[in-house]
Design a protein that fits this description.
It contains 14 helices and 13 strands. It has helices at residues 2-19, 22-29, 33-40, 48-60, 67-74, 92-106, 124-136, 149-161, 186-200, 221-237, 254-267, 282-290, 305-313, 324-340, and strands at residues 78-85, 112-119, 141-144, 166-169, 180-183, 206-214, 217-218, 242-249, 273-276, 297-301, 316-321, 348-350, 354-356. The strands form two sheets. Strands 6, 7, 8, 9, 10, 11 and 13 form a seven-stranded mixed β-sheet that branches. A six-stranded parallel β-sheet has the order 2-1-3-4-5-12, sandwiched between helices. The two termini are 24 Å apart. 37% of the residues are buried.
């Protein structure tokens, strides 16, 4: 009942706002209709006394401009660009893409389009090539998954010079002065992951970290920061637990992964718990199922299909969700609010850190928007 009344009140307030005419405001303020129009549209040639009278009348009448109607009436088209790392299927970035496309669909009446651009991780030339496309096409706004700091700064400095707003996704770099950021607090996420893992591995003497690497580098800044948080927790609470590292290059095939994992688990029978800070926990999960190693479990990130299947079959004990779909959606929506509706947006937006298990993963649906 309360919810119903609240909805009625909101509707009533909206109706009152819609019924307030410029003529009504002018009569209350004791000025001309033209003066009110200039104030509402922030045009020049309004005296200070007249401005104060109109602002007072707007306040007394609780006038709220209909920014959505104004934006629709303006009938301008907007093109945003979204720069993502190149990726394979069944990856975290697929969910981000889906969120981006869903927001474009939701805001289609406002003539918004988003162009997806893909750069090769750890390839400065690739990042520069894609950033040049944004600059050449004079994008209205940009969503960026940062590359190396210096190379990203070169791009964002040019965006600032052209007054093109941009949003950082995945990695927060405040020195670049983005309009906004969406992603997890990766340090806290890693710290949380360690705490959850050690609830079931507190009596273990060793654990394994699986790293996804590309050209000798960890494949994302998020992975690196999560590992820092993870190791901080372990040092503070379980300093005697030995941490083994296994590197799995992204450009190898399943046969190669199986060989590396077989060698590790055969040589380290004391290891029963593993963690990876990226989205391919299923590489280990599938191996454990195939080799019938039921006493070993892995913890990973992201709600990709292959990970979900391993959770259901028991080879992945936990997944940490970082709401990739919502990150993509909200980045586009933030540009929409800032550029189309001329509204302020929240500068830092950390996504929830949620733990999914076999028992609750079926109830965890993609966020409705």
């Amino acid at each position: 009942m309360r919810s119903h009344n609240s909805k009625k009140n909101v509707t009533f307030a909206e109706d009152m706002t819609q019924k307030i005419r410029i003529k009504d405001i002018a009569e209350r303020a004791g000025v001309s209709v033209g003066t009110v129009d200039r104030v509402l549209h922030k045009r020049p040639n309004v005296s200070k006394p007249a401005l104060e009278k109109v602002e007072q009348a707007l306040k007394e009448m609780n006038y709220q401009p209909n920014v959505y109607a104004s934006a629709l009436a303006y009938n301008k088209s907007y093109t945003f660009y979204c720069m993502l790392p190149k990726h394979s299927s069944e990856a975290y970035w697929n969910e981000v893409e889906d969120g981006v496309k869903r927001c474009v669909e939701a805001r289609r009446d406002f003539h918004i389009d988003v162009k997806l651009l893909f750069y090769q991780r750890f390839d400065n030339d690739s990042f520069n090539e894609q950033s040049e496309i944004c600059l050449k096409e004079n994008a209205d706004g940009v969503i960026i998954v940062p590359s190396e700091l210096d190379i990203t700064r070169k791009f964002t400095d040019q965006l600032h010079e052209r007054n093109i707003p941009f949003i950082l996704l995945d990695s927060y770099i405040p020195d670049l002065q983005p309009l906004s950021f969406y992603g997890q607090d990766s340090f806290q996420s890693g710290y949380f992951a360690a705490r959850m893992l050690m609830l079931i591995a507190r009596d273990e003497k060793a654990i394994m970290i699986m790293k996804q690497i590309k050209d000798g580098h960890v494949s994302s800044k998020q992975q690196a920061n999560r590992e820092v948080g993870f190791r901080h927790y372990m040092q503070d609470h379980f300093p005697s637990v030995k941490i083994h590292e296994v590197d799995l290059p992204l450009d190898k095939d399943r046969k190669y992964y199986d060989m590396i994992l077989e060698k590790f688990f055969t040589s380290h029978p004391e290891v029963h718990h593993c963690i990876t800070f990226a989205s391919k926990a299923h590489i280990v999960g599938d191996f454990l199922l195939k080799t019938n190693r039921r006493s070993i479990q892995i913890m990973g990130y992201d709600l990709v299909g292959k990970n979900v299947e391993c959770v259901k079959q028991g080879s992945i004990s936990f997944l940490i969700s970082q709401h990739a779909f919502m990150q993509g959606y909200l980045c586009v929506d933030a540009l929409f609010h800032a550029i189309v509706l001329k509204k302020k947006v929240k500068p830092v937006n950390y996504m929830p850190i949620e733990l999914l298990t076999k028992e609750n993963i079926e109830f965890y649906k993609r966020e409705s928007v």
